[in-house]
Fold this sequence. Notes:
The chain is of the alpha+beta class. It is built from three helices and eight strands. The protein has a single domain (26-163), classed as Beta Barrel (L,D-transpeptidase catalytic domain-like). A hairpin with a 2-residue loop joins strand 2 and strand 3.
Amino acid sequence: MRYFLMILTAFALISCGKPSKFKTYNGPQVTQILVDKTARKMWLLHGTKALKSYKIDLGFAPAGHKFKEGDGRTPEGVYRIDRRNPNSSYHLSLGINYPNNQDRAKAHAAGVSPGGDIFIHGGPVLRKNRKKADWTAGCISVTNKEMEEIYAMVKDGTPILVKP
C-alpha cells in the first residue's frame, strides 16, 4: 500500500507541476472581431459590446487592401477565422480565410498571386523584441500574452471585419 501511495503522489506531482499550454475562457462568446487599420486597434465583440481591445501591428506596407503576394498589405473586408495553429512560428496564430473568391478573381485578372497565410498572431518565436511597428507580411500582430488570451476567446468560424 505504501508503494502504491508513493506512485500515486508522484503522478499527481507530475501532472500538477506543468501548467496547461493554453489558457481557457468561460466568458461571453466572441461573435465578431473588428479591426481598424488606421487606428491600429482590434476589438473582440459580443454583439455590439466590446469584450477586449488590443493595439496591433500590421503588414509592412499597411495602406490599402491586400492585392498580391508580397505586397505587405493587410487585407480589408469581411473574412472568417478558419484555422488555428498552436505550433506557429509567431507564438500561436488564428488563420483568416484570405484570399476569398473575390480576392482570387481580382488577382487572377491582373495575372498575379493573391498570396495567403494571413493570421492574427503573437511575436516571432526567434526574435524577442519587435523594433518597429507594422512588421508583418500582411498579418495582424499582438503581444504574446494578448495572443494567448485571443486564442482562448476566439473560435473557428468567427467573422472578422478589417476596416481601412
